[in-house]
Amino acid sequence: MPLVLHAASGNKNALKALVTAEYNSVKVELAKNFEMGVSNKTPEFLKMNPIGKVPVLETPDGPIFESNAIARYVARLKPDTTLYGSTLIDYGHIEQWIDFSATEIDANLGRWLYPRLGYGLYLPPAEEVAVSTLKRALEALNIHLASNTYLVGHGVTLADIVMICNLSIGFKAIMTKSFTSQFPHVERYFWTLVNQPIFKKILGDVKQAESIPPVASKKPTQPKEPAKPKPKEVKKEEVKPQEVAEEEAPKPKAKNPLDLLPPSKMILDDWKRLYSNTKTNFREVAIKGFWDMYDPEGFSLWFCDYKYNDENTVSFVTMNKVGGFLQRMDLARKYAFGKMLIIGNEAPFKVKGLWLFRGTEIPKFVVDECYDMELYDWVKVDINDEAQKERVSQMIEDAEPFEGEALLDAKCFK
Ligand SMILES: N[C@@H](CCC(=O)N[C@@H](CS)C(=O)NCC(=O)O)C(=O)O
User: Fold this and answer.
1) Positive or negative CA dihedral for 325, 326, 327, 330?
2) How far is the CA of 162 from the centre of ligand 1 (A)?
3) Hey, what CATH class is 258-413 in?
4) Cut 0.90: pTM above it
5) Ligand 1 mean position, distance from CA 54 (Å)
6) Domain spans of the chain, in order of start
7) Which atom of ligand 1 is nearest to the CA of 238?
């Protein structure tokens, strides 16, 4: 019998089990035709969970309710899962962060968001307490993530799955960029993980809230589906998944404006091939070839400089951060080439880069879609300045020392 999860699709508490199942290659199906406010009030459902809330997981040995308990069960279905760490102390830390996520993050997010959506009484002083308590928790999380890529150890664990699913509702519904930018390590953590393939498969494309929802009038917005429950029974998650689904409805695919630019004599793929295939005499072959083919009317070159180098205290975290940036630039592969240097023998490491973009400006879709862009200062290369040209050449060829310092790593986007 397959494991059946009773919840509306998009319910963030159900997502925890679905992401866990995907990591563990366990099959969990969503109950067919589940209707929030109706299916969870039937006698059969109340037998599985007397409080009538979702999610509930039906297993061959009986039902389980409470989303964290369900996620734990799904994690343990695979005996050699990595989601629970490999030592007793890892296990302790994973449980620590799951509880932290539920009690310090999720609970306060809910106290801030739901009254605004009309679920519960909106009281400004209560909101103030919720926001400041949430900030305290996010500050603590931010400190932990300053020197850790994941909550526990060096890979995704159940703690990350629970934390990301809880944060996702905040990022989507109420935590705007100006709020989250106070916690840059949390931002990086969140965007890096939601863009990892398994999270992305289950959570879809996550878009950050652009504004804090206004306080709703007394009655919550009615869901569009025919909904029988009285207003008091119309619960928060019935409305949100629809709102999120609406936001994410596929738009007709517009042509990228960069495809409409006049043709350039520089063929980006030719340059990428030359770069990749030149194994010797790099200066004479690849760098010379680059300047021969460079077309300043069809392309532009940009230096970037990480704004928060003093945070780069741990080498592997810094390298992961840059690796994440390059992954998120995937959307620009047809239009860009980049080199990112991680500089220095010891912390704090400096991160500097060079980017070649189609067009004479940094493409707008890159700035809009890749949040890392704003973590760097960007300066357009003046190719009439020989010193700047030489710096470009050195960055392309990973010259070492670079500006008097050793390179910890050099990464290429091509
Ligand atoms: N602590 C529970 C919370 C469950 C919960 O609040 N579920 C909401 C949807 S996200 C629900 O079923 N509400 C319906 C109701 O309150 O009747 C868990 O993590 O599973």
Assistant:
1) positive
2) 15
3) alpha beta
4) no
5) 5
6) 1-250, 258-413
7) 9
